[in-house]
Amino acid sequence: VIASCGTKVGTVDHLEGENQLKLTKDENDQHHLIPTSWIGEVKEDQVILNKNSEEVKENWQAI
Q1: What CA–CA distances, in Å, run from 5 to 19, 24, 63?
Q2: What does the alpha-carbon distance between residue 32 and residue 49 come to, in Å, rounded to a whole number?
Q3: Which residues contact 36 (CB under 8 A, 6 or more apart)?
Q4: Which Pfam families does UniProt cross-reference here (predicted)?
C-alpha cells in the first residue's frame, strides 16, 4: 500500500467487510484499517492511495 506521496504505508492483509482494507501487522505488532474510499488506483501489486502518508497515519484505525 503506497500513499500518494510515494511512501509505503503497509501491506494488504485482506478486505475487512465491504469498505475497509486491513493491513498486515506493523513493527509495533499492530494492524491498521483504512477505508477503501482512500484507494486512488490499483496497479499490478500496488494499492495507491489518494492520501499522503501523514494523512494516512493520522486517520487510519489501529486495531
Answers
A1: 23, 21, 24
A2: 14
A3: 15, 18, 19, 20, 21
A4: DUF2171 (PF09939)
